[in-house]
TrEMBL record, chain A:
SUPFAM superfamilies: MetI-like
GO CC annotation terms, alphabetical: plasma membrane
Transmembrane segments: 20-39, 51-72, 78-97, 131-160, 180-201
Subcellular localization(s) per the UniProt record: Cell membrane; Membrane
Membrane topology, record value: Multi-pass membrane protein
Lineage start: Bacteria, Bacillati, Actinomycetota, Actinomycetes, Micromonosporales
Family designation: Belongs to the binding-protein-dependent transport system permease family.
Keywords: Membrane, Transmembrane, Transmembrane helix, Transport
Protein name per Swiss-Prot or TrEMBL: Osmoprotectant transport system permease protein
Ranges of residues in domain ABC transmembrane type-1: 16-201
TrEMBL record, chain B:
Cell compartment(s), UniProt: Cell membrane; Membrane
Name of the protein in its database record: Osmoprotectant transport system permease protein
Pfam families per UniProt: BPD_transp_1
Cellular component terms (Gene Ontology): plasma membrane
Lineage: Bacteria, Bacillati, Actinomycetota, Actinomycetes, Micromonosporales
Transmembrane segments: 28-50, 71-102, 150-173, 185-206
Species this chain originates from: Paractinoplanes atraurantiacus
CDD domains listed in its UniProt record: TM_PBP2
Bilayer topology annotation: Multi-pass membrane protein
Length: 211, 219
């Protein structure tokens, strides 16, 4: 195992770098898109159930199917990393839009009324009061989305771009265990580290929750 | 968008090997087997941990570990270790099914109102009766949630498993890619996506049907 890592450190590092890129860009994009989408589901209550249902349907589409379906819809090349990024962004939005909506809905009505009574307008109240209070719920969703993305990226190896997934396909083709084990361990570690970072961010930005 | 493969009647012939009906059937068979074995293993453990409260760290961490395991890596590891065939793939699928079922069984048991359990004990129910008549029915909505995400997970992973030689709908994607037949790839993607959505809707209906109206609040 050590031998394999020494001989192939360049390949493994390149795969790791691509894996990080393919997993984390969609998390950021998805988060930015999910915030307004989730808010719409709260601002207009009749939108909430359709939103939850659409998200559920999108999330249930198997990743490989989405990976090969997107090039046809987007007109991208099948080997373009954009397919993976768009697919994972869709999953992230599907997961987070609902969490954002649920988080905002969980804000105590009395807190909102107090903020309004203190003179907060709707937008200021959303940014200064509702979002911070909903943050623990939203960040919990972000953790799930990040970990899920990191493990999903490797499926992309079947269409030629999959970060650490390429180690799986290589090992499988050569009937060689080392790359597969290295890939799995690195992927799981990456997920654990990303999860830990979000937990630390959450602790830093919600000091009132640390009792 | 070239849909000729999807709408070619020859591909819908139930007797044709490699046609949609046979691939769909074998796909569902793998999903069923993995869910069955996974449930038989995970449900009792989850219920035991939830009922007794012993070993709850296992149940909590199983969910996280299961989500972070890369499915393709697990499949290829199993096949490289054990050779081609149904068994290694089935092991991989089952390993992926266990965490969501175990964790949701535990979570369902833990989140129900403990006062209800105390009341059941106070009424003189035996531990077994408390489990089967109070805890299980009340934990069912959460447990079904875990079962549904497990089912979706297997449908998706069984598709990926075509890359390591398994049959099922993934064959359309993998073989289509291999021979640059995008009409076939597209047909496979659509059928798999529809299958996943329909299966989830079906399980949602099952959930409606098995959850007691007293628990779901639909009288």
């Amino acid at each position: 195992m050590i031998q394999y890592l020494q001989n192939n450190s360049d390949t493994v590092l390149a795969a790791l770098r691509q894996h990080l890129y393919l997993a984390l860009v969609p998390v950021l994009l998805g988060f930015v898109i999910a915030l307004p989408v989730g808010y719409l589901g709260v601002r207009f209550p009749w939108l909430y159930h359709p939103l939850v249902n659409v998200c559920g349907v999108l999330y249930s589409i198997p990743s490989l199917a989405l990976f090969v379906f997107l090039p046809v819809v987007l007109g991208t090349k099948i080997l373009s990393p954009l397919n993976i990024i768009v697919a994972l962004t869709i999953y992230t939005v599907a997961l987070l839009a609902r969490t954002v909506a649920d988080g905002l809905r969980s804000v105590d009505k009395l807190v909102n009324e107090a903020a309004t009574a203190m003179g907060y307008r709707r937008t200021r109240r959303l940014i200064d009061v509702e979002l911070p209070v909903a943050l623990p719920v939203i960040l919990a969703g972000l953790r799930v989305a990040t970990v899920a993305n990191i493990s999903l990226v490797s499926v992309g190896a079947l269409i030629g771009i999959g970060g650490l997934g390429q180690l799986f396909t290589r090992g499988f083709q050569l009937f060689y265990l080392e790359p597969i084990i290295v890939g799995i361990v690195l992927s799981v570690l990456l997920a654990a580290v990303a999860d830990l970072i979000i937990v630390l961010i959450q602790r830093a930005v919600t000091p009132w929750a640390r009792a | 968008m070239n849909l000729s493969y999807l709408f070619d009647p020859a591909n819908w012939d139930p007797s044709a090997a490699g046609g949609f009906p046979q691939l769909l059937l074998s796909h569902l068979w793998y999903v069923f087997l993995a869910l069955l074995i996974g449930t038989v293993i995970a449900l009792p453990i989850g219920l035991y941990i939830g009922h007794t409260g012993k070993g709850s760290f296992i149940a909590i961490n199983a969910g996280n570990a299961g989500r972070s395991l890369p499915t393709l890596g697990l499949l290829m590891l199993m096949v490289t270790l054990l050779g081609l065939g149904l068994l290694p793939v089935l092991i991989a699928l089952t390993v992926l099914v266990i965490p969501p079922i175990l964790t949701s069984a535990y979570a369902g048991m833990r989140t129900l109102d403990r006062r209800v359990v105390d009341a059941a004990k106070g009424m003189g129910m035996r531990p077994w009766q408390v489990l089967t008549r109070v805890e299980l029915p009340m934990a069912l909505p959460v447990m079904m949630g875990g079962f549904r995400s497990a089912a979706l997970q297997v449908v998706a992973t069984a598709t990926v498993a075509a890359a390591v030689g398994l049959g099922g709908l993934g064959r359309l994607l993998i073989d289509g890619l291999a021979v640059n037949d995008y009409s076939r790839v597209l047909a496979g993607a659509i059928v798999v996506a529809v299958l996943a959505v329909v299966l989830d809707l079906f399980l949602a209906l099952v959930q409606r049907w098995v959850v007691s109206p007293g628990v779901s609040g639909r009288f």
